[in-house]
Structure formats: C-alpha cells, structure tokens
Amino acid sequence: MSVTQSVQGKTAIVTGAGSGINLAFATLLLENGCNVLIADLALRPEAKVVVDKYSSRSGSARAVFQKTNVIDWKQLEEMFTVAEREFGEVDIVCPGAGVYEEHWSNFWRPPGAPESRDAPLGGRYALLDINLTHPIRVTQLAISHFLRHRKNNSGRKHIVHISSIAGQGKSMAAPIYVATKHGINGLVRSLDDLDDKFGIRVTAVAPGVIKTPLWLEHPEKLKMIREGKDEWVTAEEVGEVMLALVQQDEVSSIIGDKHRQGTLYRVQGGTILEVSKTVREVNAFNDPGPAGRAGNTVADSAVLINEIYDLLSQPNWGKAKL
C-alpha cells in the first residue's frame, strides 16, 4: 500500500510501550523516522534496547522514556509537557496501556477477595481506570493539544486506540475487560466527525489473541490456549496495522505480504480494524463478529469458566471482608 502521509519527522506519544503491541508500534514509528515518547511504569529489557538505540539526538528519530502511571491524571498531563519540551508538536497519540482481567482487578474476584487489590470501599476498579478511563482522559488531552497547535497547519493528527475482539461480543471469563473494550469502540465511533471538522482522526485496532507478555506470563490465561488448535497474532502484525492507520487512507486485509492485495478498507475517523491473521473492518451494525477466524480462538475457555463456577459455589462469594 502506498503511504499518503509519512510519519517521518512527526512525534508520537504511546502509553504502555514498555512491552507488547505498543512497543511494536513505537518501534515501527521510530524505524520510519518518528520521534516517540514511551510512557509506562517501566521498560522491559526488549523495550530498553529500543530506547537505548534511539536515544541519540543526532539520529533521524529519537525515543524518550517517561515513567508514567496511567491512572494518575497529573502524570498523563506531564507526558504531553515532556513531549513538547523534547520534540515540540505532537502528531500521533496512542493510549495503549491495558490489562486483561488480572486477578488483582477481576469481576470474579471482587473487592475484598484475597487476590483483589481493589479496595472494598474504594469506589474504583483498577481495570476500568487503566483500560477505559485512561484512554478517555488521554484522548481529551490529545485533542486539546492538537487544537492549540492547529495554526501550525502540520497535517492530520491521529489518536489510535487499542480495542479487542472482546469489544464485539461477550466473555464469561472477562466481563470487565469486555465492558472496557465495548467502551473503547463506542468512544472511537463517537468521535468520527473530528476527522472532517478538525483533521483529528480517531481510530482503533481490535486484535485477536496476541503473543505478548500479557498472555505468555500468565498461566491462568494460557490454560485457555490449545497449541495446534489456536493461532497467535503477533504484536508486530498489530503494530503494522496501527502504522497503516496513521500513514494510509486504505488498509489491505493482507498482513505483511507486499505482493498480495486483499480487500481494501478505507481509513477515516471512527474506523476500527480487527487484526486476526487477516484484517477486516468492524462495523457498528450487523457485523459478523470475530468467531472462527485464525488468531481469534481460545479452544479451552471452558477451563476458566469452570473455575468461575467453582468460585461462585464458595460460601459468601462477593461479600467483602472489611
């Protein structure tokens, strides 16, 4: 696909880029000449290698790490302050940090359960704050930044969200996670008119089952995957589609093969692209859903559901011990 708006010379902020999908996206941006502020609690070794490689001020693109807790709004504002100080105007924002129904913030292990870190009387779920409140707040901050710099006339601005195939359906194993991804889809679609009105394009990718530490380092999740039956989507495949969302006006359903052209999807405000082993647009109405496509299946999800039924059979489930 031809590039219609190169990221070379641009600046991006990517939260959660210390690992996984967001690191893959940040790496592709840097390789294509875009400065990146990586905002995360810490850098995994593979992310530190990337930051070290692109830390020089003499290179065509530069990476800066900003330690950031994405549920702290002051720290989110600081990301933009640091990015402006280091690079000037910001062009691309990805509020990508997220978690997947961890035991420490989990519908089936409610506040007061031994594994939960959500305070029984705290009035908050960490999973909601990370996966939904943080992207909403970063989107507001990005729009504010973009509007203040409109006079510079530096081209279209982009906000790229991380949704999921979970935003298209249901999951007994991960109800809060599913709710957050449905929320991301609704947010992205609701902001579609910003593209034509202000040149701010809000889009999202909706990956299937991704081979990242979020899965690989959690045995409680891996038990749902059946090797030989289920197929992983790689972080790099998702990152490639994210890069296409900010550089191209059309995206092919074929990932990674420059010599094949599949179905072409027009990119505009509100576009959500499912990334399984192929790419397709997720429609708001009458969408066929993600079921059955390679990269979207978890053959042994019943294992976790049976564990949930066991939890619900325990005396006083959900009653917080204050």
From TrEMBL:
The keyword Transmembrane helix does not apply. Keywords: Oxidoreductase. GO terms for cellular component: cytoplasm. It holds the Pfam family adh_short. One of its GO terms (molecular function) is oxidoreductase activity, acting on the CH-OH group of donors, NAD or NADP as acceptor. InterPro entries: NAD(P)-bd_dom_sf, SDR_fam. Belongs to the short-chain dehydrogenases/reductases (SDR) family. PANTHER family: 15-HYDROXYPROSTAGLANDIN DEHYDROGENASE [NAD(+)]. This is NAD-dependent 15-hydroxyprostaglandin dehydrogenase. It comes from Talaromyces rugulosus. The lineage of its organism: Eukaryota, Fungi, Dikarya, Ascomycota, Pezizomycotina.
